């Protein structure tokens, strides 16, 4: 079964290439790499957990749509937060994107690789066809 890569190259703010795909499609499954709150300028958005959560999900939404899918097809999400105190605010924003039948989800507290990032979300979607 062929693997189709999604999105373009991944680069750090300094232009360094990162050896990963933004996502891949294998058969009916779409797996997105962990989404960070990178805005259009390639930098982490300002505004804390709410703004970064929104940006993570919007980034994922765009990748899923490019693959012919949508957030409604997300079956599983894995979330990393840098501070457990952000969990309630994270859930408020996250829940606005998944108001009914939310996907399965795991959430952990951990340091992240990108300075200034406070949340990372990885998505797995099922899209037949």
TrEMBL record:
Gene Ontology cellular component annotations, sorted alphabetically: cytosol
CDD domains on file: YjgF_YER057c_UK114_family (cd00448)
Pfam families, per database record: Ribonuc_L-PSP
Gene Ontology MF annotations: deaminase activity
Family per similarity comment: Belongs to the RutC family.
Protein name as annotated: Reactive intermediate/imine deaminase
